[in-house]
Design brief:
This protein is about 30% helix and about 25% strand. The protein is of the alpha/beta class. The strands form five sheets. An eight-stranded mixed β-sheet has the order 4-3-5-6-7-8-9-13, with helices on both faces. It has a four-stranded antiparallel β-sheet with strand order 10-11-12-14. Helix 8 links the parallel strand 5 and strand 6. The longest helix is centred in the first third of the chain and has 17 residues.
Length: about 425
Protein backbone atom coordinates (compact mmCIF):
# COMPACT_ATOMS: atom_id res chain seq x y z
CA UNK A 1 0.00 0.00 0.00
CA UNK A 2 1.08 3.56 -0.52
CA UNK A 3 2.25 5.52 2.51
CA UNK A 4 -0.63 7.97 2.08
CA UNK A 5 -3.26 5.23 2.15
CA UNK A 6 -1.62 3.53 5.12
CA UNK A 7 -1.85 6.82 6.99
CA UNK A 8 -5.58 6.93 6.25
CA UNK A 9 -5.80 3.48 7.82
CA UNK A 10 -3.98 4.54 10.99
CA UNK A 11 -6.98 3.72 13.22
CA UNK A 12 -6.94 0.06 12.21
CA UNK A 13 -5.98 -2.48 14.80
CA UNK A 14 -3.91 -4.10 12.04
CA UNK A 15 -0.15 -4.27 12.43
CA UNK A 16 0.39 -3.23 8.83
CA UNK A 17 4.13 -2.91 9.21
CA UNK A 18 4.33 -6.50 10.49
CA UNK A 19 2.08 -7.71 7.68
CA UNK A 20 4.23 -5.97 5.10
CA UNK A 21 7.41 -7.38 6.61
CA UNK A 22 5.97 -10.90 6.44
CA UNK A 23 4.70 -10.31 2.89
CA UNK A 24 8.17 -9.21 1.81
CA UNK A 25 9.66 -12.39 3.28
CA UNK A 26 7.10 -14.46 1.36
CA UNK A 27 7.85 -12.55 -1.87
CA UNK A 28 11.60 -13.02 -1.49
CA UNK A 29 11.07 -16.77 -1.07
CA UNK A 30 8.87 -16.73 -4.16
CA UNK A 31 11.79 -15.37 -6.20
CA UNK A 32 13.08 -18.95 -6.29
CA UNK A 33 9.83 -20.06 -7.99
CA UNK A 34 10.11 -19.91 -11.78
CA UNK A 35 6.75 -18.30 -12.57
CA UNK A 36 7.30 -15.45 -10.15
CA UNK A 37 10.96 -14.72 -10.96
CA UNK A 38 10.17 -14.85 -14.69
CA UNK A 39 7.22 -12.44 -14.40
CA UNK A 40 8.96 -10.06 -12.02
CA UNK A 41 12.16 -10.15 -14.05
CA UNK A 42 10.19 -9.29 -17.20
CA UNK A 43 8.92 -6.24 -15.29
CA UNK A 44 12.51 -5.12 -14.78
CA UNK A 45 12.76 -6.15 -11.13
CA UNK A 46 15.54 -8.02 -9.33
CA UNK A 47 15.61 -9.85 -6.02
CA UNK A 48 17.02 -6.72 -4.40
CA UNK A 49 14.01 -4.72 -5.59
CA UNK A 50 11.63 -6.56 -3.28
CA UNK A 51 11.35 -3.85 -0.63
CA UNK A 52 8.63 -1.84 1.10
CA UNK A 53 9.21 1.12 -1.21
CA UNK A 54 8.91 -1.00 -4.37
CA UNK A 55 6.09 -3.31 -3.23
CA UNK A 56 3.57 -1.59 -5.52
CA UNK A 57 5.85 -2.35 -8.49
CA UNK A 58 5.43 -6.10 -8.06
CA UNK A 59 3.12 -7.24 -10.89
CA UNK A 60 -0.24 -8.44 -9.62
CA UNK A 61 -1.47 -11.99 -10.04
CA UNK A 62 -4.74 -12.77 -11.84
CA UNK A 63 -6.89 -15.83 -12.44
CA UNK A 64 -6.09 -15.54 -16.14
CA UNK A 65 -2.35 -15.59 -15.36
CA UNK A 66 -2.80 -18.72 -13.25
CA UNK A 67 -4.69 -20.42 -16.09
CA UNK A 68 -2.09 -19.40 -18.66
CA UNK A 69 0.78 -20.70 -16.55
CA UNK A 70 -0.92 -24.08 -16.14
CA UNK A 71 -1.30 -24.33 -19.91
CA UNK A 72 2.35 -23.45 -20.42
CA UNK A 73 3.78 -25.64 -17.66
CA UNK A 74 1.26 -28.21 -16.38
CA UNK A 75 0.11 -29.07 -13.86
CA UNK A 76 1.12 -26.28 -11.46
CA UNK A 77 2.33 -23.62 -13.86
CA UNK A 78 5.89 -23.53 -12.49
CA UNK A 79 4.47 -22.22 -9.20
CA UNK A 80 5.13 -25.18 -6.93
CA UNK A 81 7.09 -23.99 -3.92
CA UNK A 82 7.64 -27.30 -2.09
CA UNK A 83 8.67 -30.88 -2.95
CA UNK A 84 5.82 -33.05 -4.24
CA UNK A 85 6.17 -35.17 -1.11
CA UNK A 86 5.02 -32.20 1.02
CA UNK A 87 1.69 -31.80 -0.80
CA UNK A 88 -1.32 -32.92 1.27
CA UNK A 89 -4.27 -31.68 -0.84
CA UNK A 90 -4.77 -30.70 -4.47
CA UNK A 91 -7.96 -28.92 -5.48
CA UNK A 92 -9.20 -28.14 -8.98
CA UNK A 93 -10.73 -24.83 -10.02
CA UNK A 94 -12.20 -23.95 -13.44
CA UNK A 95 -9.59 -23.03 -16.01
CA UNK A 96 -8.27 -25.49 -15.00
CA UNK A 97 -6.20 -24.29 -12.06
CA UNK A 98 -4.61 -26.95 -9.86
CA UNK A 99 -4.21 -25.74 -6.28
CA UNK A 100 -1.69 -27.65 -4.11
CA UNK A 101 -1.65 -27.24 -0.33
CA UNK A 102 0.70 -28.63 2.29
CA UNK A 103 -0.77 -29.87 5.57
CA UNK A 104 0.32 -26.60 7.17
CA UNK A 105 -1.26 -24.60 4.34
CA UNK A 106 -4.56 -26.38 4.93
CA UNK A 107 -4.33 -25.79 8.68
CA UNK A 108 -4.14 -22.05 7.98
CA UNK A 109 -7.08 -22.11 5.56
CA UNK A 110 -9.18 -24.24 7.91
CA UNK A 111 -8.27 -21.97 10.81
CA UNK A 112 -9.44 -18.91 8.87
CA UNK A 113 -12.81 -20.52 8.19
CA UNK A 114 -13.10 -21.63 11.82
CA UNK A 115 -12.60 -18.02 12.94
CA UNK A 116 -15.18 -16.88 10.41
CA UNK A 117 -17.81 -19.41 11.40
CA UNK A 118 -17.24 -18.91 15.12
CA UNK A 119 -17.75 -15.16 14.63
CA UNK A 120 -20.93 -16.00 12.69
CA UNK A 121 -22.25 -17.73 15.81
CA UNK A 122 -21.50 -21.43 15.20
CA UNK A 123 -20.66 -23.47 18.32
CA UNK A 124 -19.96 -27.03 19.42
CA UNK A 125 -23.68 -27.48 20.17
CA UNK A 126 -24.72 -27.10 16.53
CA UNK A 127 -25.81 -29.69 13.98
CA UNK A 128 -24.80 -28.11 10.66
CA UNK A 129 -26.03 -28.92 7.15
CA UNK A 130 -23.03 -28.10 4.92
CA UNK A 131 -24.52 -27.53 1.45
CA UNK A 132 -21.57 -26.44 -0.72
CA UNK A 133 -20.00 -28.82 -3.26
CA UNK A 134 -17.46 -31.32 -1.95
CA UNK A 135 -15.92 -32.54 -5.20
CA UNK A 136 -12.77 -30.93 -6.67
CA UNK A 137 -13.09 -27.42 -5.20
CA UNK A 138 -11.69 -26.38 -1.83
CA UNK A 139 -14.63 -24.66 -0.12
CA UNK A 140 -16.60 -27.62 1.24
CA UNK A 141 -13.54 -29.54 2.44
CA UNK A 142 -12.14 -26.50 4.24
CA UNK A 143 -15.52 -25.55 5.74
CA UNK A 144 -16.18 -29.14 6.84
CA UNK A 145 -12.81 -29.30 8.64
CA UNK A 146 -13.42 -25.85 10.16
CA UNK A 147 -16.79 -26.91 11.54
CA UNK A 148 -15.22 -29.99 13.11
CA UNK A 149 -12.47 -27.78 14.55
CA UNK A 150 -15.19 -25.73 16.26
CA UNK A 151 -16.81 -28.95 17.47
CA UNK A 152 -19.97 -28.88 15.33
CA UNK A 153 -21.65 -32.04 14.11
CA UNK A 154 -21.38 -31.86 10.31
CA UNK A 155 -24.08 -33.17 8.00
CA UNK A 156 -22.34 -33.27 4.55
CA UNK A 157 -25.39 -32.50 2.44
CA UNK A 158 -23.58 -30.98 -0.52
CA UNK A 159 -25.33 -29.23 -3.41
CA UNK A 160 -28.85 -29.62 -4.75
CA UNK A 161 -31.56 -32.12 -3.73
CA UNK A 162 -33.72 -29.59 -1.87
CA UNK A 163 -36.31 -32.14 -0.76
CA UNK A 164 -33.60 -34.38 0.66
CA UNK A 165 -32.10 -31.46 2.59
CA UNK A 166 -35.52 -30.61 4.03
CA UNK A 167 -36.10 -34.22 5.07
CA UNK A 168 -32.70 -34.61 6.76
CA UNK A 169 -32.87 -31.20 8.48
CA UNK A 170 -36.23 -32.14 10.02
CA UNK A 171 -35.30 -35.71 11.00
CA UNK A 172 -31.98 -34.72 12.61
CA UNK A 173 -33.30 -31.48 14.08
CA UNK A 174 -30.49 -29.61 12.30
CA UNK A 175 -30.31 -26.09 13.72
CA UNK A 176 -27.61 -24.49 11.52
CA UNK A 177 -26.75 -24.40 7.84
CA UNK A 178 -24.04 -23.13 5.49
CA UNK A 179 -25.27 -22.28 2.01
CA UNK A 180 -25.26 -19.89 -0.90
CA UNK A 181 -27.93 -17.27 -0.13
CA UNK A 182 -30.09 -18.12 -3.15
CA UNK A 183 -30.15 -21.83 -2.27
CA UNK A 184 -30.96 -21.12 1.38
CA UNK A 185 -33.87 -18.83 0.53
CA UNK A 186 -35.14 -21.38 -2.00
CA UNK A 187 -34.93 -24.13 0.64
CA UNK A 188 -36.86 -22.09 3.20
CA UNK A 189 -39.57 -21.17 0.68
CA UNK A 190 -39.91 -24.76 -0.52
CA UNK A 191 -40.35 -26.06 3.02
CA UNK A 192 -42.91 -23.35 3.71
CA UNK A 193 -44.85 -24.23 0.54
CA UNK A 194 -45.06 -27.81 1.81
CA UNK A 195 -46.42 -26.61 5.13
CA UNK A 196 -43.23 -27.58 6.94
CA UNK A 197 -41.36 -25.57 9.56
CA UNK A 198 -37.64 -26.23 9.64
CA UNK A 199 -35.75 -26.27 12.96
CA UNK A 200 -33.01 -24.03 11.52
CA UNK A 201 -32.03 -21.15 13.80
CA UNK A 202 -28.78 -19.84 12.29
CA UNK A 203 -27.09 -19.69 8.91
CA UNK A 204 -23.84 -18.58 7.34
CA UNK A 205 -24.01 -17.58 3.68
CA UNK A 206 -21.20 -17.01 1.20
CA UNK A 207 -20.04 -17.36 -2.39
CA UNK A 208 -22.42 -15.18 -4.41
CA UNK A 209 -23.05 -11.60 -5.39
CA UNK A 210 -25.73 -11.26 -2.78
CA UNK A 211 -29.04 -9.44 -2.65
CA UNK A 212 -28.64 -7.00 0.27
CA UNK A 213 -32.23 -7.69 1.36
CA UNK A 214 -31.98 -11.49 1.32
CA UNK A 215 -30.74 -11.77 4.91
CA UNK A 216 -33.45 -9.41 6.13
CA UNK A 217 -36.16 -11.42 4.36
CA UNK A 218 -34.97 -14.72 5.80
CA UNK A 219 -34.73 -13.29 9.29
CA UNK A 220 -38.17 -11.65 9.14
CA UNK A 221 -40.02 -14.43 7.31
CA UNK A 222 -38.39 -17.50 8.85
CA UNK A 223 -36.84 -16.35 12.13
CA UNK A 224 -33.37 -17.29 10.96
CA UNK A 225 -30.24 -15.45 12.09
CA UNK A 226 -28.20 -15.07 8.92
CA UNK A 227 -24.60 -13.88 8.82
CA UNK A 228 -22.25 -13.63 5.88
CA UNK A 229 -18.61 -14.41 5.27
CA UNK A 230 -16.39 -13.82 2.26
CA UNK A 231 -13.60 -16.07 1.09
CA UNK A 232 -11.14 -16.55 -1.74
CA UNK A 233 -10.25 -20.12 -2.69
CA UNK A 234 -6.51 -19.40 -2.78
CA UNK A 235 -6.27 -17.93 0.73
CA UNK A 236 -9.36 -19.02 2.68
CA UNK A 237 -11.76 -16.78 4.59
CA UNK A 238 -11.02 -13.08 4.09
CA UNK A 239 -13.81 -11.35 6.04
CA UNK A 240 -16.80 -12.26 8.19
CA UNK A 241 -19.74 -10.84 10.10
CA UNK A 242 -19.90 -10.75 13.88
CA UNK A 243 -22.87 -10.65 16.26
CA UNK A 244 -23.48 -6.98 15.42
CA UNK A 245 -24.21 -7.81 11.75
CA UNK A 246 -22.78 -4.46 10.72
CA UNK A 247 -20.31 -5.47 8.04
CA UNK A 248 -17.70 -8.18 7.52
CA UNK A 249 -14.46 -7.79 9.50
CA UNK A 250 -11.29 -8.16 7.45
CA UNK A 251 -8.97 -10.94 8.57
CA UNK A 252 -5.92 -9.49 10.34
CA UNK A 253 -3.31 -12.08 9.31
CA UNK A 254 -3.68 -11.43 5.59
CA UNK A 255 -2.25 -8.52 3.64
CA UNK A 256 -5.19 -6.79 1.95
CA UNK A 257 -4.79 -3.95 -0.53
CA UNK A 258 -7.39 -1.89 -2.38
CA UNK A 259 -6.86 -0.69 -5.95
CA UNK A 260 -8.80 1.08 -8.65
CA UNK A 261 -11.09 -1.37 -10.51
CA UNK A 262 -9.14 -2.70 -13.47
CA UNK A 263 -6.20 -0.44 -12.57
CA UNK A 264 -3.20 -0.57 -10.26
CA UNK A 265 -3.43 2.60 -8.18
CA UNK A 266 -3.87 2.13 -4.43
CA UNK A 267 -7.12 3.75 -3.28
CA UNK A 268 -9.47 3.84 -0.33
CA UNK A 269 -12.95 2.43 -1.16
CA UNK A 270 -15.68 5.01 -0.75
CA UNK A 271 -19.42 5.17 -1.53
CA UNK A 272 -19.74 5.68 -5.26
CA UNK A 273 -16.06 4.87 -5.80
CA UNK A 274 -15.59 1.12 -5.34
CA UNK A 275 -12.18 -0.49 -5.02
CA UNK A 276 -10.93 -3.98 -5.89
CA UNK A 277 -9.55 -6.27 -3.19
CA UNK A 278 -6.02 -7.60 -3.64
CA UNK A 279 -4.75 -10.27 -1.23
CA UNK A 280 -1.36 -11.68 -0.29
CA UNK A 281 -1.23 -14.90 1.72
CA UNK A 282 1.35 -14.74 4.50
CA UNK A 283 1.57 -18.51 5.04
CA UNK A 284 0.92 -20.61 1.95
CA UNK A 285 4.05 -22.53 0.94
CA UNK A 286 2.91 -25.02 -1.73
CA UNK A 287 1.87 -22.24 -4.10
CA UNK A 288 2.59 -18.74 -2.75
CA UNK A 289 -0.16 -16.23 -3.51
CA UNK A 290 1.26 -12.71 -3.84
CA UNK A 291 -0.85 -9.69 -4.80
CA UNK A 292 -3.77 -11.70 -6.18
CA UNK A 293 -6.46 -9.56 -7.78
CA UNK A 294 -9.73 -11.01 -6.51
CA UNK A 295 -11.84 -9.03 -8.99
CA UNK A 296 -14.29 -8.33 -6.13
CA UNK A 297 -15.34 -4.75 -5.45
CA UNK A 298 -16.37 -3.02 -2.22
CA UNK A 299 -17.57 0.57 -1.98
CA UNK A 300 -17.19 1.39 1.69
CA UNK A 301 -14.83 0.52 4.51
CA UNK A 302 -15.86 1.05 8.12
CA UNK A 303 -12.81 1.76 10.28
CA UNK A 304 -14.42 2.77 13.57
CA UNK A 305 -14.33 0.09 16.34
CA UNK A 306 -17.20 -2.36 16.29
CA UNK A 307 -19.49 -2.89 19.30
CA UNK A 308 -18.43 -6.55 19.30
CA UNK A 309 -14.98 -5.46 20.51
CA UNK A 310 -13.12 -6.05 17.26
CA UNK A 311 -11.35 -3.05 15.76
CA UNK A 312 -10.48 -4.56 12.37
CA UNK A 313 -12.05 -2.73 9.38
CA UNK A 314 -15.23 -4.10 7.86
CA UNK A 315 -17.26 -3.76 4.69
CA UNK A 316 -20.93 -4.42 4.07
CA UNK A 317 -20.83 -6.62 0.99
CA UNK A 318 -19.26 -7.32 -2.38
CA UNK A 319 -20.91 -4.89 -4.79
CA UNK A 320 -19.65 -6.31 -8.10
CA UNK A 321 -16.80 -7.65 -10.19
CA UNK A 322 -14.07 -5.65 -11.89
CA UNK A 323 -13.42 -8.14 -14.69
CA UNK A 324 -15.35 -10.40 -17.01
CA UNK A 325 -15.07 -13.22 -14.51
CA UNK A 326 -17.92 -13.53 -12.02
CA UNK A 327 -19.36 -16.10 -9.63
CA UNK A 328 -22.56 -18.05 -10.12
CA UNK A 329 -23.65 -20.50 -7.42
CA UNK A 330 -20.22 -20.16 -5.85
CA UNK A 331 -18.32 -21.10 -9.01
CA UNK A 332 -16.24 -18.77 -11.18
CA UNK A 333 -17.67 -18.24 -14.66
CA UNK A 334 -14.78 -17.72 -17.10
CA UNK A 335 -15.83 -16.66 -20.63
CA UNK A 336 -12.57 -17.78 -22.21
CA UNK A 337 -13.55 -21.39 -21.44
CA UNK A 338 -16.35 -20.98 -23.98
CA UNK A 339 -13.74 -19.87 -26.54
CA UNK A 340 -11.73 -23.01 -25.76
CA UNK A 341 -14.75 -25.24 -26.46
CA UNK A 342 -15.43 -23.38 -29.71
CA UNK A 343 -11.86 -23.91 -30.88
CA UNK A 344 -12.15 -27.62 -30.06
CA UNK A 345 -15.27 -27.69 -32.26
CA UNK A 346 -13.44 -25.92 -35.08
CA UNK A 347 -15.49 -22.74 -34.91
CA UNK A 348 -15.02 -19.18 -33.73
CA UNK A 349 -17.95 -16.80 -33.33
CA UNK A 350 -18.89 -13.72 -31.31
CA UNK A 351 -20.67 -14.66 -28.09
CA UNK A 352 -21.50 -13.45 -24.64
CA UNK A 353 -22.55 -14.96 -21.33
CA UNK A 354 -25.44 -13.29 -19.52
CA UNK A 355 -25.99 -13.88 -15.80
CA UNK A 356 -29.40 -13.00 -14.42
CA UNK A 357 -31.46 -13.74 -11.35
CA UNK A 358 -34.98 -14.94 -12.08
CA UNK A 359 -37.43 -15.80 -9.30
CA UNK A 360 -34.56 -15.96 -6.84
CA UNK A 361 -32.45 -18.32 -8.92
CA UNK A 362 -29.27 -17.55 -10.87
CA UNK A 363 -29.44 -18.34 -14.59
CA UNK A 364 -26.63 -18.43 -17.12
CA UNK A 365 -27.40 -17.79 -20.79
CA UNK A 366 -24.89 -18.23 -23.60
CA UNK A 367 -25.73 -16.10 -26.65
CA UNK A 368 -23.91 -16.98 -29.88
CA UNK A 369 -24.09 -15.02 -33.13
CA UNK A 370 -25.19 -17.00 -36.17
CA UNK A 371 -27.10 -20.14 -37.05
CA UNK A 372 -27.21 -23.06 -34.60
CA UNK A 373 -23.92 -24.91 -34.32
CA UNK A 374 -23.75 -28.43 -35.72
CA UNK A 375 -24.22 -31.06 -32.98
CA UNK A 376 -25.65 -28.28 -30.85
CA UNK A 377 -26.54 -30.44 -27.84
CA UNK A 378 -23.05 -31.95 -27.68
CA UNK A 379 -21.57 -28.44 -27.86
CA UNK A 380 -23.87 -27.31 -25.04
CA UNK A 381 -22.82 -30.27 -22.90
CA UNK A 382 -19.14 -29.50 -23.46
CA UNK A 383 -19.64 -25.86 -22.44
CA UNK A 384 -21.52 -26.97 -19.32
CA UNK A 385 -18.69 -29.37 -18.51
CA UNK A 386 -16.11 -26.60 -18.93
CA UNK A 387 -18.08 -24.09 -16.84
CA UNK A 388 -19.29 -26.74 -14.39
CA UNK A 389 -22.86 -25.54 -14.48
CA UNK A 390 -26.01 -25.70 -16.57
CA UNK A 391 -26.61 -23.06 -19.23
CA UNK A 392 -29.34 -21.94 -21.58
CA UNK A 393 -28.20 -21.56 -25.20
CA UNK A 394 -29.47 -19.00 -27.69
CA UNK A 395 -28.39 -18.19 -31.25
CA UNK A 396 -28.88 -14.55 -32.20
CA UNK A 397 -28.38 -12.30 -35.27
CA UNK A 398 -25.90 -9.90 -33.66
CA UNK A 399 -24.50 -8.47 -30.45
CA UNK A 400 -24.40 -4.78 -29.54
CA UNK A 401 -21.21 -3.10 -30.70
CA UNK A 402 -18.52 -3.32 -28.03
CA UNK A 403 -20.49 -5.83 -25.96
CA UNK A 404 -18.35 -7.55 -23.30
CA UNK A 405 -18.13 -11.32 -23.21
CA UNK A 406 -19.92 -11.40 -19.86
CA UNK A 407 -22.81 -9.35 -18.51
CA UNK A 408 -23.95 -9.76 -14.90
CA UNK A 409 -27.47 -8.40 -14.54
CA UNK A 410 -28.01 -9.45 -10.93
CA UNK A 411 -28.81 -6.46 -8.73
CA UNK A 412 -27.61 -4.08 -11.42
CA UNK A 413 -29.56 -1.26 -9.82
CA UNK A 414 -27.59 -1.64 -6.60
CA UNK A 415 -24.16 -2.43 -8.05
Amino acid sequence: MSKEVINEYSSWDFCLSQQQATALTVARRAWDITAYSKRWGAAGLTYGDITVSTWNELPMLTKDALMDSVREAPPFGDRLGVPRSDIAHIFVAPGPIYMPFTASDMDQVVGSFAKALSACGFTCNDFVDQTTMYSWVIAATAIDLALRKIGCAVVPGGVGQSERHIEVIRHLNVNAIIAFPTFLEHLLKQASSLGLQLPLKKAAVMGELSDPQAKVRMQENFGLTVREFYGVADVGAVAWECSESNGMHLRDDLLVEFITPGGTETVLPKPGSPAELVVTDLYRAAMPIIRLRTGDLIDELKTEPCACGRSSPRFLRIVGRSSEITKVKGMFVVPRLVSDVMLQQGTERPYRLVVDRIDGHDHLLLEIVGEPIEACEIFKQKVEHALRMKIDLSFIKSLPEGSPRLIDRRFRNET
